[in-house]
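Something for you to look into today, if you have time. I want to see for myself how the chain folds. Leave the record below and I will have a look.
***
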Amino acid sequence: MSVSFTLEKRTNLHDESPIRISWSFMGERVQSTLGVSIKKEDWNEKSRLVKADAHNHNGQNADEINFLIKRISTVVMDVELACIENQYILGKDMMKQVISDALSKDIARPEDILERCLQGLKSLPEIKTRYYKDLAGRYYKFLCEARNFYISVDKFYILQELFGRGERVAVPTDKFKPQKERGGLEHMKKILALVLVLALCLTAAASLADGVAKEDIKLGVILLHDEDSTYDNNFIIGVKDAAAKLGLSDDQVIIKRNIPESNDCYEAALDLADEGCQIIFADSFGHETFMIEAAKALPEVDFCHATGTMAHTENLANYHNAFAAIYEGRYLAGVAAGLKLNEIKEAGNLKGEVPMMGYVGAFTYAEVVSGYTSFYLGAKSVCPDVIMKVQFTGSWYDEKGEKEAAENLIAAGADLLSQHADSMGAPTACENAGIPDVSYNGSTVDSCPNTFIVASRIDWAPYFEYIVKQKTDGKAIDTDWTGTIATGSVVLTDVNTAAAAEGTVEKIAELKAAFVAGELNVFDTATEGFIT
């Protein structure tokens, strides 16, 4: 068990960031905010405490905030010790309530904390906690009090199989195992398991056929970062555009930000299902294995994952991959880059003998490689002697690292830069150095008015509209979905004519029409002579 405190990236109007608390409690990872904000320069990252003499806009000083941090650490330890000694299991929601209650009531002894916890459980019989698995492979929401509080473990399993809930108290099967059953009980459980599987299939089929009423639909979205990331912000724009077009209310779309590529993604998915989401979407490559586990746990919920690759091999009816042919957009952006390089060359302002582009990439994944390859092919189609250097950062979002990579490429002689990374690092370096920039995921013209040319991005609104409509119409969502320029899923921002070469807008429009008509393919192996 460990308790840690960190500052969130987001800030309030006073330039203060919330203090976030996370702890491991009996195998569970629990996260919450402390309810206190402080400026970044007043936070000691090493000690995880507020620096002496600091205070926030509410007048809370370092001593008060640090006392609260230490008090929470002590309470978490006391609660866990009390639960271990008494064999009690708490769900995350109840754990947060107990901690809050213990702090507000200033309860000191572990025994008192546990008693307060039990009172809370008994007074809130319908509270939602995490999911637990039974022998038939189904998941239920249960209150968890004690190992043998009302009924024996064996009886609990039978009641759970028959009625889905049994008594008010439940025991998660991965925590306490029943003794080996004898003859008839084992046979009964096998029969019940088959009946439940059949019932699940029939229920799923009926649900698919009927669809979900539009006023009842709920869409959950899991993001790796937040609005500060151009990548994640692009999904936020997409889902909001889709919601507006579909006429969904604000409470029908739930967004969870800053969810790392870890078991936190699985927990976030379960939380969204708790909140009534019938469709759950995650945006980062590393979320995939955790989304798959959630899909196995909740067969009645559809899980959709951007950039993933495993849906076609997992063969889960409720797990789906989605992406778009963004290389088409990168090709067009590359054409804009090539036209700019021609302009620089004609003016005699090249740094070297031939035009050179720099490219900041996140990882050596196929998505990144195909992206910079298509960008290069687009540039080369109008600027035949162009060359390109690529530098990787090893991270999707590392503003400092991306800026340093861009500066290195500029120092190496790059006349123009582009990127497949999610921060403002590279565009900022270009603006500072006066180097033309082709961005990604959105326009940076407000921050970089002198150097931003254009950016390609995936418009996720069509996909969000599609999955919601499939769910409301009672139709299956495609296992693998790919959007293109022709479907409106690959788009370019407005060209910044103040920085772009003359004729860029017209050339992009011409080639876009060729993509839509099927006359242009980025990786046309037949034309290149690779297919005979």
